[in-house]
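Give me C-alpha coordinates for this 121-residue protein.
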Amino acid sequence: MVDVTTAIVINRPPGAVAAVAGDPSHAALWLVHIATERWTVVEHVPAERLVLRTDEGPYPLELTTTWGPHDGDPERTIVRLRTTAEPTGARRLLRGFIETATKRANARDLLELKQLLERSR
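Here you go.
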Protein backbone atom coordinates (compact mmCIF):
# COMPACT_ATOMS: atom_id res chain seq x y z
CA MET A 1 0.00 0.00 0.00
CA VAL A 2 1.10 3.56 -0.77
CA ASP A 3 0.21 6.12 1.91
CA VAL A 4 1.52 9.66 1.43
CA THR A 5 0.53 12.81 3.33
CA THR A 6 1.66 16.29 2.31
CA ALA A 7 0.80 19.59 3.98
CA ILE A 8 0.91 23.31 3.21
CA VAL A 9 -0.02 26.48 5.10
CA ILE A 10 -2.35 28.85 3.27
CA ASN A 11 -2.66 32.48 4.31
CA ARG A 12 -6.45 32.42 4.30
CA PRO A 13 -8.99 31.55 7.00
CA PRO A 14 -10.26 27.95 7.19
CA GLY A 15 -13.71 28.98 5.92
CA ALA A 16 -12.23 30.39 2.71
CA VAL A 17 -10.15 27.24 2.23
CA ALA A 18 -13.16 24.99 2.92
CA ALA A 19 -15.18 26.85 0.27
CA VAL A 20 -12.75 25.56 -2.37
CA ALA A 21 -11.01 22.47 -0.95
CA GLY A 22 -14.20 21.14 0.62
CA ASP A 23 -16.41 21.55 -2.43
CA PRO A 24 -16.18 18.52 -4.75
CA SER A 25 -17.28 20.68 -7.70
CA HIS A 26 -14.09 22.77 -7.25
CA ALA A 27 -11.69 19.82 -7.14
CA ALA A 28 -10.62 20.22 -10.77
CA LEU A 29 -9.48 23.78 -10.01
CA TRP A 30 -6.55 22.56 -7.94
CA LEU A 31 -6.24 18.78 -8.18
CA VAL A 32 -4.38 18.43 -11.47
CA HIS A 33 -5.20 14.76 -12.19
CA ILE A 34 -8.82 14.92 -11.04
CA ALA A 35 -10.25 15.82 -14.45
CA THR A 36 -8.92 12.70 -16.14
CA GLU A 37 -10.70 10.16 -13.91
CA ARG A 38 -14.15 9.69 -12.38
CA TRP A 39 -14.14 10.30 -8.65
CA THR A 40 -16.69 9.36 -6.01
CA VAL A 41 -17.26 11.38 -2.86
CA VAL A 42 -16.69 8.90 -0.04
CA GLU A 43 -16.97 11.36 2.85
CA HIS A 44 -17.75 15.06 3.04
CA VAL A 45 -17.61 16.99 6.32
CA PRO A 46 -17.93 20.60 5.08
CA ALA A 47 -15.97 22.25 7.88
CA GLU A 48 -13.08 19.81 7.96
CA ARG A 49 -12.69 17.00 5.38
CA LEU A 50 -13.33 15.74 1.85
CA VAL A 51 -12.54 12.17 0.78
CA LEU A 52 -12.61 11.21 -2.91
CA ARG A 53 -12.01 7.78 -4.45
CA THR A 54 -11.47 6.40 -7.93
CA ASP A 55 -11.06 2.89 -9.23
CA GLU A 56 -10.00 4.18 -12.66
CA GLY A 57 -6.41 4.59 -13.73
CA PRO A 58 -3.62 2.13 -13.09
CA TYR A 59 -4.79 1.34 -9.51
CA PRO A 60 -7.44 2.47 -7.00
CA LEU A 61 -6.72 5.80 -5.27
CA GLU A 62 -8.23 7.65 -2.36
CA LEU A 63 -7.59 11.35 -1.68
CA THR A 64 -8.33 12.78 1.76
CA THR A 65 -8.13 16.55 2.15
CA THR A 66 -8.34 18.03 5.65
CA TRP A 67 -7.98 21.62 6.84
CA GLY A 68 -8.05 23.68 10.00
CA PRO A 69 -6.48 26.72 11.68
CA HIS A 70 -2.68 26.73 11.63
CA ASP A 71 -1.17 27.14 15.12
CA GLY A 72 -4.43 28.63 16.39
CA ASP A 73 -4.26 31.52 13.89
CA PRO A 74 -7.78 32.05 12.45
CA GLU A 75 -6.31 33.76 9.37
CA ARG A 76 -4.02 30.86 8.36
CA THR A 77 -5.00 27.32 7.44
CA ILE A 78 -3.03 24.10 7.32
CA VAL A 79 -4.20 21.80 4.55
CA ARG A 80 -3.20 18.15 4.46
CA LEU A 81 -3.60 16.01 1.37
CA ARG A 82 -3.34 12.27 1.96
CA THR A 83 -3.21 9.85 -0.93
CA THR A 84 -3.60 6.14 -0.41
CA ALA A 85 -3.27 3.68 -3.26
CA GLU A 86 -3.36 -0.07 -3.78
CA PRO A 87 -1.03 -0.90 -6.65
CA THR A 88 -1.65 -4.43 -7.89
CA GLY A 89 0.35 -6.98 -9.77
CA ALA A 90 3.77 -5.87 -10.98
CA ARG A 91 3.00 -2.28 -9.95
CA ARG A 92 3.51 -3.34 -6.32
CA LEU A 93 7.20 -3.61 -7.17
CA LEU A 94 7.19 0.10 -8.08
CA ARG A 95 5.95 1.21 -4.66
CA GLY A 96 8.97 3.47 -3.97
CA PHE A 97 8.64 5.19 -7.34
CA ILE A 98 4.88 5.59 -6.87
CA GLU A 99 5.39 7.14 -3.40
CA THR A 100 7.92 9.65 -4.75
CA ALA A 101 5.69 10.58 -7.68
CA THR A 102 2.70 10.90 -5.34
CA LYS A 103 4.61 13.23 -2.98
CA ARG A 104 5.47 15.46 -5.94
CA ALA A 105 1.90 15.42 -7.26
CA ASN A 106 0.46 16.22 -3.82
CA ALA A 107 2.90 19.09 -3.32
CA ARG A 108 2.04 20.47 -6.78
CA ASP A 109 -1.70 20.22 -6.09
CA LEU A 110 -1.38 21.93 -2.69
CA LEU A 111 0.73 24.71 -4.18
CA GLU A 112 -1.96 25.21 -6.84
CA LEU A 113 -4.60 25.46 -4.09
CA LYS A 114 -2.45 27.94 -2.13
CA GLN A 115 -1.89 30.14 -5.18
CA LEU A 116 -5.57 30.01 -6.15
CA LEU A 117 -6.74 31.03 -2.69
CA GLU A 118 -4.07 33.62 -1.93
CA ARG A 119 -4.46 35.47 -5.23
CA SER A 120 -8.25 35.59 -4.81
CA ARG A 121 -7.98 37.82 -1.72
